[in-house]
Amino acid sequence: MSSKDPKSNPAAEAMERLIAAQRVGQALFEREARRMATKHGLDDPRTQKMLRSAGGARDTLDALEIALESRPPEVAAAEGEVVVAGRVAADDLRGVSRATVSLEDASGHPVKAAGAAVTDAAGRYALRIAPSAAAKLTGKEYVVVAADAHGKELQRSVGPVKLALNETIRADLSTGARPPLGAPVTPRKPRQPRENVTFTVSGTVMEPEGKPAANMLVRVYDKDVKYDDLLGAAMTNRKGEFTVTYRLRDFSEDEDAADLYFIVTDSAGKERLSTADRVMFNAEREATVELVLPG
User: Fold this and answer.
1) pTM reported for the whole predicted model
2) Dihedral of CA 69/114/153/176: which sign?
């Protein structure tokens, strides 16, 4: 029997176990919903309740799969380097593969010295800027741009990123992101449908003694009168940081902002924190939160 891969990622392995268990649960819910629809009819309240449970299980599975796919790349900058790393996602939050990621200056000119990177199957990328170029680019602000194989722009960073020597800068790109201040004026694209408007909530999870809580699963919910909506999930990195992106259509048809609460579980599936009694009402388009686990 082969020994365990020393490069294995415990957080990813824990997430994969959760996804496998959720797939089984979701399949059971769907099978039971079909059985009840056959026996009692589709409009029967018992069938409707089971259909909602099956739909919720499907949403949870989708959120877990996206959380695994969107886990931040752990890329360290070598001596003298600068690394810009992150993920390119479509409006359904799935990763965009084979996109070319590069930098532009404040005037919209490509920064050829920085080079380019290509996203993997999950949409992740790591743009490594060699020391010879990094020394000249450090301290300045740039826009991160993703383009398809034909050079057509797909997305750009919400705001400029400032390069720092020997550091990795995180820059995620998603559909509907706003162009950064100072970027060149380009023809306005058709406004995306209301239901495709994206939101992000970022934060940190801390242990009671103040240390970052790594490898924690953070689930983000919208609090409603009847049924709470699961908006997304993410694993914390070694700094305890997480980011979840969700869409307007994920939580409401007639609200402009979600009322957020968070549930944090460890890699064994044990719940460590719930803020269901401390709701973040009318969350901002780009919200931040600090979650401290109880002692």
Assistant:
1) 0.52
2) positive
